[in-house]
Design brief:
With about 100 residues, the protein is an alpha+beta fold. Helix content is about 55%, strand content about 15%. The chain is built from 3 helices and 3 strands; from the N terminus they run H-H-E-E-E-H. It has helices at about 5-35, 40-55, 95-99; strands spanning about 60-65, 70-80, 90. It has a 3-stranded antiparallel beta sheet. Strand 1 (about 60-65) and strand 2 (about 70-80) form a beta hairpin.
């Protein structure tokens, strides 16, 4: 490959990265606006999970709330979670979550 080809490929990669970042920022702004509106918190969390997992390359798709004392977390929302666990499951705050 010659230098022009490498430069062209680098530019294309850079443009794809910029487009991805713009999309991600747009989603974050949209979610911020939705959260500021009145509405059911559960619906907001479901929307957040849907938009974040569809936009960002994330391994997990759960929302956890750190409980007072910062020792445990509460499962607030999660895709493909047993509905009986949402708002009820409390887990110890592991080192991987804290760091």
């Amino acid at each position: 490959m010659n230098q022009e080809s490498i430069t062209f490929l680098e530019r294309m990669d850079y443009e794809r990265t910029l487009e991805l970042r713009a999309t991600q920022q747009s989603v974050v702004a949209e979610l911020g606006q939705k959260i500021l509106t009145k509405g059911e918190t559960k619906l907001h969390m479901d929307l957040i999970l849907q938009r974040v997992s569809g936009t960002f390359d994330v391994e997990y798709d759960k929302i956890l709330e750190i409980l007072p004392g910062q020792e445990n977390v509460l499962l607030r929302a999660g895709r493909e979670c047993d509905d009986g666990l949402v708002e009820r499951a409390i887990m110890p705050l592991g080192r991987g979550i804290r760091d």
